[in-house]
UniProtKB/TrEMBL annotation:
Family matches, as Gene3D superfamilies: FAD/NAD(P)-binding domain
The keyword Nuclease is annotated on this UniProt entry: no
Name of the protein: NAD(P)/FAD-dependent oxidoreductase
Membrane spanning residue stretches: 480-506
Alphabetical list of InterPro entries matching this protein: Amino_oxidase, FAD/NAD-bd_sf, Retinol_saturase
Keywords recorded for this protein, A-Z: FAD, Flavoprotein, Membrane, NAD, NADP, Signal, Transmembrane, Transmembrane helix
Domain Amine oxidase, first and last residues per copy: 16-502
Annotated Pfam families: Amino_oxidase
Amino acid sequence: MASTRRALVIGTGTGGLASAAFLAKDGFDVLALDADAEIGGYLAPFSKDGFVFDQGLHYVGACRPGQLVHDLLQSLGVDAGELFHELNPDGFDLYRFPDLDVQVCRPLAAYRERLGVLFPEESKGLRHFFGLLDGAARMHDALARGILGRPVLTDLVALTGVPALLQWSQRPLRELIEQSTSDERLRAVLAGQSGAWALPPSRVVGLAALLYMAHFSDGAFFPRGGGGGLRDALVRAAEAKGAQFRTRALVERIETERGRVTGVVLAGGERIEADIVVSAVDPALTLGRLVSASDLPTSLRRKAAVIEPSMATFQIWLGLRRDLRTYGLGAQNVWLYPSYDVEEGFSARFTGKLPPRPMLFLSPTSIKDPSGTLAPEGSSSLVVLTYVPHARFRKWQSLPEAERGPAYAAYRDEIAAWMLKELDARYPGLVGDVVVQAYGTPLTAADRTRAAAGAPFGPAMTLSQWGPKGFRTRTPVTGLYLAGSGVFGGGVAPCLLSGLAASFMAKLAPK
């Protein structure tokens, strides 16, 4: 394409970086803008005292040749085989319940067999559940090949399972699990990955959850250098094609004329003209504040105004002068559930009250990354995460971080103590020799990425917001497109895909 049209990208998270790289590859003159001091959104790491911490990336699927993430990156000149390291294939996720540990392994057949040994009376229910999950995996692979322009005849096999799967686009995951088994322990295991989409089984669309699980059907991976390693690879790919980046550039308004985008206005009044604008920030921000209401249909404005965000997180970043492998952690994620009631871990979303004990997610990033760049030798970096309601922090959200005062700090410390108490009960003595201890609240996420309600996964994947009822790449404003977690969902693969879609649509825009 011999176009010299100017394209602006708002936000440089995974979706924004992918948009910049694909647009530049397609011949656009690209400038990507970020309000923060650093490029990368949730991919941007921070460092302290020799430790490097990730803000949002924990694992990625479909990284083998011929799979979605691998081939999307390959099309940009990024070698995914070199970038990603596979997590423990015999247990890339560990679900730890009060008296049961389950290692999630690859491939799906091996995991199904493992659960069959643990639950010998549940063979019929497992056959039902994994039959649908196998179908979702085939659908995932067929969609990937179609998107990447290389479908094969065997993809027709995936179509035979579509009717059975499509009913779960209108029903929640909990119904599928309850339909499959009455065993409360197996129900909890089948819902064990719920934290990955930040919704309880009763709220997440069944098909969305199945496709997410299917994404890891052939294993899980972590980038060398953590999220920063993936960010840097995408930046290099974009810059190699001529894209430029600018930080501390807060977009206050997307300008239009006669229904067509003409550029953006930054805080302070600077105007930057453009033929194409890709907004890779939250749709609530793009459609609710950056674009004039007069440019959007009433129905779309109302839809943006009532977006239900995914649940917000509270993170503790720990730098420990000890090797956590000697304390039982490995190259895997750990999900700690205080009971077999997975719903309970998300109850605060609806009640505003924290449960007696938190559900915790552990990510020992320095073990997951063999490059040795995330922690000094003999030391470890560890992320401890739980879900909290944004409403508990709302009274401080209008204040700059430095002005939130002692009450905010006290409440932040209270939640951290609550989490660490649970962690010590489940992994006695794990935390010690602490060099760094830092916290990330829902407001931290909103400060750094402009995420609505501090939600790291964008709009919640509920029945009223996912799939056909979600947001599209194209908007009613000619030349304005959406990317990021608000389009296809949260996570690396959906956000990479949103960048490809935005560039494809931009190429079709009338000049």
